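Render this sequence as a predicted structure.
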Amino acid sequence: MEKYYKPTSRSNETESSSQKKARVELSPSDIIADPGLRKPIDEYDKEIRDQVRRAYLLNGPTQPIGHTFPRKQQGDHFRSFQESWFKKFDWLEYSVENDSAYCFYCYLFKQPVRSDKFGYEIFTRQGFNNWRKALDAFKEHVGGVNSCHNNARRHCQDFKNQRQSVSHVFSSHSKEAEIAYRVRLTSILHVTRFLLLQALAFRGHNETSSSSNRGNFLELLSWYKEKNPEVAKVLYENAPGNNQMTSPLIQKEMVKACAQETTLVILDEVGDKLFSVLIDESRDASIKEQMAVVVRFVNQTGHVIERFLGVEHVSDTTASSLKVALEGLFARHGLSISRLRGQGYDGASNMRGEFNGLQRRILNENPYAFYIHCFAHQLQLVVVAVAKCSSSVADFFNYTSLIVNTVGASCKRRDQLLQDHHDRIVMKLESGDIFTGRGKHQETSLARPGDTRWGSHYTTLVRLFTMWDSVLKVLENVSDDATNPTQKTTAAGLIEKMESFEFAFIMHLMLKVLGCTNELSHALQRKDQNIVHAVNLIVVTKQNLQHMRDNGYDELLEEVKGFCMKMEIPVPNMDDKIPARGRSRRDGQMVKYSHRYHVDIFLVVLDSLLFEMNERFSEASTNLLKCIACLDPKDSFSKFDHDKLLELASIYSVDFSPFDCTFLRSELGTFISDVRNSTEFSACHDLATFAILMVQTERHLCYPLVYRLIELALILPVATATVERAFSAMKIIKTELRNKMADEWMNDNMVCYIEREIFAVIHDERILQRFQNMKTRKIQLSQISN
């Protein structure tokens, strides 16, 4: 028998198994929005072609609404692609990259046909760009009932309708099985919602049934099953072995469906409106550079909205890489750089570079996407500069950092600080010096000042002032108990420094000064803040600081003297003389105490602060903001200037044609007379509130051109606080313990968590249907209206 059958060795079996083809998985980078950059379907591996088709079908055809299509000469006229063609031909796609049109259905389901069929290559590989004959070519491509295009469309419809597939027909699941499947799927969705809204991890260390650490998803699902008898009937042991719907892959697909539906609501909210973009980049827990993108626009009710669009992993942070990533994100969501009217960045060189930065690259493509340096970052730069404006102030903050580090150097010292502070609060409450109330007298600790953390300098001084006695007590304990001579000497020196008049004077001065800038910083970080109000706030802050410089010294001095009397700190005679700072007594350069504190410290700090404010916030003097300021409704439109608003329209010439400018001239006169005589607008002092009132009174329909100017003013970004909050969310979601999260998985979690107000109200059915359409499922769901 051996001569007929060749014996099979174990080595041959191993060799044949090793030659088996590895399983191919679809990568998110394989799905490219721009039809001119995609690779053909037949170039994908056969195992994932259906997945690719479903991914593209979920995204829909690429139709960049609002894009400025380039014009080129064809024949005797300049011609371009027309946006109205999208409505006439739902299959039509447009490539921004190569200015060509494609067929969505033919790309996905192109059937083998003769090469002479019109559209075989033009609308799938090469791209069509003869706009002079576009309509005739589109109609010819559609052809008759049995044309290649219509056959591809029918294949697409059959592919989308899983209930008519052969596998579904032969599976012949009962109605009861479908009901059980829906209950099971809905239960999983409810658990997923809870975990996403709380930013909790899904996976566990060991997800087997006997494990005590199965992860939040499975543990919460088990608890849900115990509390709901209907769910218990369809989960785990009561569910088919091949349809448990609890695997990690199912979890990720459900989260992806949630994120995509949330993003879809955001994109529907943006619609075809003009918008601005806020961008920043930061490293995540796995040391990957992530770029967060937020869009700012005015919604249908006139409210200023900022929405998180997503995070993109960038290989490097050069301007070219950031722009490629931004274009890819825009293409996936059907947004166009042509609709950009503002850019907001934190001021990093790769962002704001005048010649090669991201803002310049976008301006080269769209000159109306004006760049605004984040006001909150500029304000922090002002604070950092003031903290180093003189040797006395710089020494003060150096000593403050040393005090914070010394007091918080160990858990023992922290506990002593908190306990002593707690005891003093209790004593004051019992004596009636202070009173209880919601949010008052919370447990706190000292904070280190940081140049990159907004408001940290002010927070440090407030807490030091509040815990003054307790800090001194801890320093005394360190001086008494420390075994290290250096620590004893340092603690004794810090006590001496804190109980000096100069330290108390600078602390009170910086509390007043940084208090003004801190209030401005919080105001600038509001999502609905607009450029006009922000500039007004800066002007008011400058006026307050100037008033403090001219008239605030005597009041500050008396306040410091009162504090020193209370804390038994010696107060020097202001007429006595001391050596000028940095000079020896032998040099004879003596100044009075009054000169030192008033001129060398007080005036230097205020002058430095005012100089930095004027230098950093130079945008207020630009022609664009001068024109926008004319829309300010405060004091019955006292800044209204007819000519300046016409100039503003000319700046945004792409949004105001010469015909519009002619009508705007007469519309402005009627508009200003109307709103000044209307009692509805008499109490309006802010442009954002004014826009809302315009919509509520339907005057945005009466004065559409004026309202367009207001929208352009409102979408200019003020601060990148929303992006900073997105990175705070990223630190919650992707932690040191979860540092292996894939980029798409992290992005889906972040979208649902950051935009949880939207995600929480999305109907379950929308998410379930999207989940079903991601791939071919064993059981199909019948459509239920929301």
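Summary. The radius of gyration is 33 Å. The chain is about 55% helix and 10% strand.
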